[in-house]
Amino acid sequence: MVGVLVDACGWAALMDAKLNIDDAMKEVVGQAELMVLESVHRELDLLSQQRKGLLLSLLESRSERVLDLDGMSHPDEMLVTLSGSRRWPVLTVDRDLKERLISSGGSYIEVASGRFLRLVET
Predict the structure, then answer these.
(1) Cβ neighbours, 10 Å, residue 60
(2) Residues 6+ apart with CB under 8 A from 85
(3) Which of 16, 90, 93, 98 has its Cα between 20 and 30 A from that of 74?
């Protein structure tokens, strides 16, 4: 099983694409264990107040909560650190975060063409 860190915008893009999570992840990493930082969970809670269809109950039932890293305040910083140290890709569509991940030796999974997931790694 491969750990996959979930970024808020990545989860939203996955929901917008209406992909089957298990099938889509299986194509790129095999069986995935979704990991959600506390701070990303808070971002998703706020986002869910502005838009519908995020299926946060699905994410909660299929993921493991990860404590925020001490000494870091921004979720992107934590995602980059964890991706590099644990070799977990990050589900994201954030262009800046994707660049930071690749620069630091991390990897990411993106929703490509709104139809499938693609793993990008160094």
Answers:
(1) 13
(2) none
(3) 16
**Contact yes or no for 53/65 (Cβ under 8 A):** no
d(CA 85, CA 105): 9
Burial code of 85-96, b = ≥16 C-beta within 10 A, e = fewer? eeebbbbbbbee
CB 38 within 8 A of CB 50: no
Report the distance separating Cα 90 and Cα 6, nearest Å. Answer: 6
Summarize pLDDT for 16-43 with one digit per residue, the tens.
999 999 999 999 999 999 999 999 999 9
Q: How many residues does the chain have?
A: 122
Bridge partners, residue 3, by sequence: 33
Q: Is 44 exposed, middle or buried (0-12, 13-18, 19+ CB in 10 A)?
A: buried
